[in-house]
Amino acid sequence: MGLVPVVDQKSGFCYGVIRAIKQAETYLKDNNQLKSLGSIVHNKLEVERLHSIGIEVIGHIELEQSKNTTLLIRAHGEPPSTYETAKKNNLKVIDCTCPVVLKLQERLKKGYEEIKPENGTIVIFGKKNHAEVNGLLGQVNGDAIVVENKQDLEVIDYTHPITIFSQTTKDPSAFSEIVAEIKKKAKEAGLPSDKLTTHNTICKQVSSRHPNLREFSASNDVILFVSGKESSNGKVLFETCKSTNPRSYKIERESDILSEWFNPGEKVGICGATSTPTWQLEKTAQYIKSL
Ligand code: SF4
């Protein structure tokens, strides 16, 4: 079809994922196997590759039964209870919690200590049951309200102080909308403005991708967004592409691609989430060339 693939040079793994994978690979140079609590990345092909070099993904139930071995904690972070289990089971921990997430955990804990004596509420804008959010909730004994959308705002007590945080991979504009709505409700309830504190804790590695992807999507005829189905930032970043270029398609692997999406000679932009490896973007480009 003479298609022209263009790989987005600003896509690919974020710093936190690169760091976690490097630490796992370094360990596996001298060891045969490493247990990872959850997948290091939400990307099937990369998980398959990591499995082939010795990474075994386990869940929290298997963690309880794992003893005297090495455990990798991925970039999303974990609640304190995971570290307690690891200690109890004599596990050696390779802690790959992203420093950005670690900082957020600390800020959340501090915010909680400040606000609790005043019966205040911690609000986390994030996805319920997401690993990072579970790790954050663990810092405050689960005593926070996780907000996914405006309907979730009804349960907040607007008569006492409120401190808002965000999961690191959320959409910045959605966060602004939620904050504006909370501010409105707090004002209606008569809460003094200095009793409402907002911390925009969205990771710069994610937020900076939105303007870039808008520009990239506008400059190509068709967009192929490569991402695992479970990737939280993948969903958000794909929506940014789709809102700029309606001919955007989210794919997990090459076999998802349909030739009817393209006209001969078109420019096909290939980009992805923070959990999409560059090698997969390049491989997709080779496939597009061959059509
Ligand atoms: S998106 Fe940001 S916070 Fe999350 S792992 Fe990557 S670098 Fe760390």
Task: Explain the overall architecture.
The chain has 11 helices and 12 strands. Strands 1-12-10-11 form a 4-stranded parallel β-sheet, with helices on both faces. A 4-stranded parallel β-sheet has the order 3-2-4-5, with helices on both faces. Helix 10 links the parallel strand 10 and strand 11 (248-251). The model has no long low-confidence stretch (mean pLDDT 95). The N and C termini lie close together (6 Å). The protein is an alpha/beta fold and 291 residues long. 42% of the residues lie in helices and 18% in strands. It is flat. The chain folds into 3 domains: 4-12 and 206-290, 4-hydroxy-3-methylbut-2-enyl diphosphate reductase, catalytic domain (Cobalt-precorrin-4 Transmethylase, domain 1, 3-Layer(aba) Sandwich), CATH 3.40.1010.20; 15-98, Rossmann fold (3-Layer(aba) Sandwich), CATH 3.40.50.11270; 100-167 and 169-202, 4-hydroxy-3-methylbut-2-enyl diphosphate reductase, catalytic domain (Cobalt-precorrin-4 Transmethylase, domain 1). The site of iron/sulfur cluster (SF4) has 14 residues, from helix 1, helix 5 and helix 8.
Distance between the termini: 6 Å
**Which strand order does the major sheet show?**
1-12-10-11
The name of the CATH topology of the largest domain is: Cobalt-precorrin-4 Transmethylase, domain 1
Structural Rg: 21 Å
In short:
With 291 residues, the protein is α/β, with parallel strands linked by helices. It is built from eleven helices and twelve strands. It is flat, with a radius of gyration of 21 Å.
